[in-house]
Structure formats: C-alpha cells, structure tokens
Amino acid sequence: MLVSPGRTCRGPLRCHQDHRSVGHHGRHAGLIVEKITGHRPMPMLSQVGGFIPAHCSGLGRAILAYSTPEVVDAVIASGMEARTPRTITTAMGLKRELAAIPHRGWAVDHEEGNIGVSCVAAPIFDPLGEVAAALSITGPSALVWADRAGPAVRLAAAAATRAY
C-alpha cells in the first residue's frame, strides 16, 4: 500500500492528513506502508518504509491520476528518471497515462520500475472523496495481466475505501 503525499498512517487504513508530506526534500514519491509478499522472491522497486517514484509506479500513478494539476506538474518538474527502457519520461506521456486511469479504474506499470515486473494499482479514497492511498498487485510480467488483475484490484481498493 502506498500513502498519498500529505498523509501519514498509524496502522492499516488509519491514514490522516498532517503537516508532513511524502513529497518533502524534493522527493516526488510515495511512502510504502505495507507489503505482503508471495512465496517467490522478486526484484522490487521498493521496501516497506521506503519511497517509490510516482511517475514510474502503478501505485504512484493511481494516486497522481486523482491529484491536483499542481502535484502532477511538480512530479514532472522534478524530473522523471528512466529506471528501465519502458519508463515514461515525458510530460505528455505521463499526462496521457494519468488521463486514462479514472476511465479504466486502475493504473498499470509494465516493467517501468524493474524489468520483468509489472503492477496493477487502484486508488483508495478518504471519506471526503480525496485520494488517500493506493494498493496494487505486483508480480512477474508474464503472470500479471492488467485486464484480469485490474477489476480485482479496483474492487479491493473500493472495499478499502468503504472501510476507511
């Protein structure tokens, strides 16, 4: 699970706004607050307690798609480093991808953080309807198909939103 900038968590789904921001110190990234791993180790972009770049992660994009234009522009202005040859690194490319997420219901990262690893993520909203966090399924690209995983991830995020 990734926490939206400007929020902290004290336990699962107990997030609230406060004065600290995940985007501090020039970082335009999200904070990983929970991770459940499978039986097969994989090279991952992040660890619990670590930060994940918003522009090249499904989790980050799921949050950015519902963020203000100022937040998106700040991510773009901070530079979008290519982590793999598939990473979106242009403003137009990122904005096009973010525009598709609300219609589709989930964000996709296809080998943009790590070669061979894909992610499907969906946003979690607070009681006021603002994006608070995101959750995802991540795995080997050969096994993570967005059209199959997307609806399940979207439903899990909707359930988390209701529990918020």
Word description of this protein:
This protein is an alpha+beta fold. It contains 4 helices and 8 strands. It has helices at residues 58-64, 69-77, 91-104, 146-163; strands spanning 2-3, 7-9, 15-17, 29-32, 51-53, 107-110, 117-125, 131-140. It has a 6-stranded antiparallel beta sheet. A hairpin with a 6-residue loop joins strand 6 and strand 7 (117-125). The chain is globular and about 40 Å long. Mean pLDDT is 80; it is low at 8-27.
Features of this protein?
single chain, 164 residues, alpha+beta, six-stranded antiparallel sheet, two-stranded antiparallel sheet, 8 strands, globular
Question: Could you provide a short overview of the structure?
Answer:
The chain is an alpha+beta fold. The protein has 4 helices and 8 strands.
Q: What is the beta-strand fraction?
A: 15-25%
Sheet with most strands: strand arrangement: 5-4-1-8-7-6
Quantity of strands, as a count? 8
Query: What is the helix fraction of residues, given as a range?
Result: 25-40%
Q: Which class best fits the helix and strand makeup?
A: alpha+beta
Query: Whole-number radius of gyration?
Result: 14 Å
> How widely separated are the two ends?
14 Å
Instruction: Return the average pLDDT rounded to an integer.
Output: 80
Alpha plus pi helix count: 4
What's the SSE blueprint?
Blueprint: E1 2-3, E2 7-9, E3 15-17, E4 29-32, E5 51-53, H1 58-64, H2 69-77, H3 91-104, E6 107-110, E7 117-125, E8 131-140, H4 146-163
Antiparallel strand pairs: 1-4, 1-8, 2-3, 4-5, 6-7, 7-8
